[in-house]
Amino acid sequence: MGKNRFYNDAKFLGSMSGRPLRVLSEYLGPLSILQRNKIVDTIVFFGSARFKSTDSYYRKAKELSNKLTKWNMENFTDEHRYVITSGAGPGIMEAANKGAHEAGGMSIGLGISLPFEQTNNKWITKGLNFVFHYFFMRKFWFIYKTKGIVVWPGGFGTLDELFDVLTLLQCKKITRKIPIILFGSEFWNGLINWESMIKHGTISREDLDLFVIIDSVDDAFEYMINNMQK
């Protein structure tokens, strides 16, 4: 007589009924790994996957990641603080992980399974290279442990990530202070007319205090280390 062993039944786990378990696995799995590696918090880099290593934004992202990682390693030894975290792909994400790697530190990659089979970059620390099925669980891990965010020029995905965080902060769903840097005034000021949003009453003047726009790696470094919660 057939027996149902649901705990290792791939058909059940892959079914609609098994979806809550799949979602839960994308919470408990990363949580266990981060705890095991004594990772307390992160600094997240968002940005375009399309920048090449010769692009200035790629070089600056790598430099900032490198500086922040060296600062982390010099100031925190018993546990891993402010670990550089990216979306694991190419472009700005690769630059973030590569900068941390070249500094001799660890970094996290939170990838996503996509139809066109984008692979995670090779600079992510072994064991901290994640691939998520659910976008909302990936976003959860971007935000849950972050103490600071640097948003580089990017496309729809980058803007989605930025406005998700801004909305949570604006609505007080996130109550801790998270310094957010939009890097590159030429891009950001040319893309979004913040004053028009205020003029039309869709945001308040104080909502602009949720982020700063910075053009220099040194300025971004100083702002981040001086405004993150310790």
Fold and architecture overview:
This protein has a single domain, classed as Rossmann fold, CATH 3.40.50.450. It is α/β, with parallel strands linked by helices. Strands 4-3-2-1-5-6-7 form a 7-stranded parallel β-sheet, with helices on both faces. The chain is 44% helix and 14% strand. It is built from 9 helices and 7 strands, in the order ααβαβαββαβαβααβα.
Q: How would you sum up this structure in a few lines?
A:
With 230 residues, this protein is an alpha/beta fold. The protein has helices spanning 10-13, 19-36, 56-75, 92-102, 135-144, 156-170, 185-191, 194-199, 217-227, and strands spanning 42-46, 83-86, 107-112, 129-132, 146-151, 180-183, 212-214. Helix 3 (56-75) links the parallel strand 1 (42-46) and strand 2.
What number of structural domains do the residues give?
1
Mean pLDDT: 94
Uncertain runs are none
**Compute the gyration radius: what is it?**
19 Å
Distance between the termini: 60 Å
Global geometry: globular
* Proportion of strand residues: 5-15%
Number of helices: 9
* DSSP strand count: 7
Share of residues in helices = 40-55%
Biggest β-sheet: strands ordered side by side in the sheet: 4-3-2-1-5-6-7
CATH third-level topology? Rossmann fold
- Which structural class matches the secondary elements? alpha/beta
* CATH architecture grouping: 3-Layer(aba) Sandwich
Largest sheet: 7 strands, parallel
